[in-house]
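testing teh design pipeline on a random one, pls ignore if ur not involved
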C-alpha cells in the first residue's frame, strides 16, 4: 500500500520550507522550525494489491494521516515524520484485509555538501478475514528503505548517477 507520494510530498515541502527560511536563518545564525500535518482519504481497485495474492483483484478504501517536525539552519534541514495508513481491501473471492501501518521517516540535507538522505521504516500489520468474518490469518509487511542524493555538480537538480535508492529490509508474511 506504500507509494512514493509521501516521499515526494516531503521533499517538496522541505524544499519550500528551506527556501523560505534560509534567508532568516542565515541572517540570524539561528535555527528555525515548525510542524506540519496532513489527512487524506482514498479508494481504488487493482490487481495485486497485496504480495500474498498477486493475481487477485481487490478494492481498497483507507486513510493516510501524518505529522512531522522540521528544523532549518544555515547548513541544512532535518525532518522527522510519523505517518499512519489505515485501510481495508475487499478481494473478489470474499476475503478482506484490515490493516494499520505506521511509517517513520527522517530526511536530512546538508546545504554545503549537497548531500541528502532519507530513511523510511514501515511495519504494516493486517488481519485477513473470510467472507463470514472469521480470521484466516495475519499479513504483515516490514520495510526499511533509504534514498540518498549526492548533488555532485551542485546544480540542485537530480542527475544520472547522483541518486542511490536501497531497500535494506522487505519482508512479508502470508496467512
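output:
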Amino acid at each position: 500500500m506504500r507509494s512514493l507520494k509521501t516521499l515526494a510530498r516531503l521533499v517538496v515541502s522541505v524544499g519550500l520550507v528551506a527556501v523560505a527560511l534560509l534567508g532568516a536563518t542565515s541572517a540570524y545564525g539561528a535555527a528555525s522550525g515548525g510542524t506540519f500535518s496532513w489527512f487524506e482519504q482514498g479508494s481504488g481497485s487493482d490487481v495485486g494489491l497485496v504480495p500474498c495474492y498477486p493475481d487477485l483483484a481487490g478494492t481498497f478504501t483507507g486513510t493516510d494521516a501524518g505529522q512531522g517536525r522540521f528544523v532549518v539552519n544555515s547548513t541544512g534541514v532535518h525532518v522527522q515524520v510519523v505517518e499512519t495508513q489505515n485501510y481495508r481491501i475487499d478481494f473478489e473471492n470474499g476475503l478482506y484485509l484490515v490493516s494499520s501501518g505506521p511509517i517513520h521517516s527522517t530526511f536530512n540535507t546538508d546545504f554545503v555538501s549537497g548531500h541528502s538522505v532519507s530513511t523510511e521504516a514501515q511495519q504494516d500489520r493486517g488481519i485477513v478475514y473470510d467472507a463470514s468474518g472469521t480470521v484466516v490469518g495475519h499479513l504483515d509487511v516490514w520495510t526499511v528503505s533509504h534514498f540518498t542524493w549526492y548533488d555532485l555538480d551542485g546544480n540542485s537538480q537530480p542527475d544520472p548517477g547522483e541518486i542511490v535508492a536501497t531497500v535494506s529490509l522487505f519482508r512479508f508474511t502470508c496467512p
